[in-house]
Amino acid sequence: MNENGQVRRLYIQGDANVSQLRGVVKIFFFRRSLLRHMVMVYLVIGTVLFMHSPQSAQAQTKVVVIDPGHGGVDGGASGAGLIEKDVTLDLSKRIRAHLVQAGYQVQMTRDTDTDVSKLFPSKLSGRHKRDLQNRLDFIRKSQAVGALMIHINSSTNVNDRGPIVFYYAPSESGKTLATNIQHALNQVASSTQRPLPRKNFFVLRHSPCTTVLIEVGFLTNNSDAARLRTTVYREHVARAIAMSVATTLRDVPVPPPYVKKTVVNDWLLDK
Ligand SMILES: [Zn+2]
């Protein structure tokens, strides 16, 4: 029915004035309802266009967090002329380059020689606690599908060598990712290490996504240290890690935004 038709029909009823008034009221409500429908149609069209826009496609790119161990005042292990914080940062940047090439978005907890304990304001006492809490909070905020914590090992036994990948013991996805990375790294390092489950590594335990801690080699082992000093070996390691991650996390859906709890309570959860 159109507005003209409605007005004409209303005029042939008894009292012309009353009918005209009713007609105007009806037209008024008809126009309001038409407006409502038009707004709904625009909203639907707008939503569809937004979902197919380039920005939205970019937002759907999967995020992987890379967390280079230590940094700033915290050098980590050292030996054979190498400081852990420097090697972890260099390796992390190389892994990032390969993951970006594979179509992932990479967020790093640090990409300079900085102290991660100062990343977010925190009421926690103790630099070490703030450091771990900040690395965890960074992962939580990222909505990442996976997170890699990069470290270099040391041991009192100089014969200990080779990369070791740790995962949170109850996590099946963590075990799968750790196993795949370990397999790839064993080939690069000519080693026979196995991935190791852990129950009480703070970040592994509380991370909302598939998270592994990779000890890339032992600075206390001559063979590992000699390899880790070369950029060629670092590049092999980085590519092996990135390719395993890219393949393993390919079908993992983007997790929902993390609902933040208080920092102190989160830390106390681990006590
Ligand atoms: Zn370390």
UniProtKB/TrEMBL annotation:
It holds the Pfam family Amidase_3. One of its GO terms (cellular component) is outer membrane-bounded periplasmic space. One of its GO terms (biological process) is peptidoglycan catabolic process. Residues 147-246 form the MurNAc-LAA domain. One of its GO terms (molecular function) is N-acetylmuramoyl-L-alanine amidase activity. The keyword Zinc-finger does not apply. SUPFAM superfamilies: Zn-dependent exopeptidases (SSF53187). Keywords: Hydrolase, Membrane, Transmembrane, Transmembrane helix. The chain crosses the membrane at residues 34-52. PANTHER family: N-ACETYLMURAMOYL-L-ALANINE AMIDASE, N-ACETYLMURAMOYL-L-ALANINE AMIDASE AMIC. This is MurNAc-LAA domain-containing protein. It comes from Sulfoacidibacillus ferrooxidans.
